[in-house]
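Quick one, T. Sequence first:
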Amino acid sequence: MHYIEIRDVDFEYEKGKSVFQNLSLNIDKNETIALMGPNGSGKTTLGKLMAGILKPTKGQVNVFSRDTRDIPLHEIGLRIGYLFQNPEKQFFANTVYDELGFVMKIKGYDEEYIKEKVEEKLEFFQLKGLVNHSPFLLSQGEKQRLAIAAVLMNEPEYLILDEPTTGLDKKRKDMLLNLLFMLKNQGIGMTIISHDRRFVERICSRFIYISRGEIQYDERA
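Structure tokens:
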């Protein structure tokens, strides 16, 4: 069985305005996929369907052999981490520390362990001096790093990253790439939605290009 199965999916935001028609795609857990295409091609919509954030108008999306319509979103989120293109869409806490620690608090970990794990992420993502700052007042690059760090606090087994290099300079892109390689070596699969071809070519082994809601090509390196 494939980790994510998209079967004959139609999707429309408004009746009569179709994004996909009869789209099918299979993804295995150990793959590192680049999802590319022009603006408005449906990349983000496809990523949200894969993560269960959106449900198909017709057809079926299965994750780990279950229909996304039958699984609560938070349950999918424990296994599939989703990074929004605009990091602010996933922020809700008053401080950087609380943004990172929230998931672990919900899971019932003790405060000392949470502090240790949060500090690891602050160190790695160079956010240490910002621990008491509001996530909404950070620079674009800082917001992006915090959003990725927050997704990883959940220890997902698969990642869907929507334009993860937005707002990152070359040095921080290299840092992100090293992190993704580390996760890849731990067996975490990922789909990277990106316009940054040079970045995805360094890590991805499968390249899917969509345009006007259709897969134009699907190639393995």
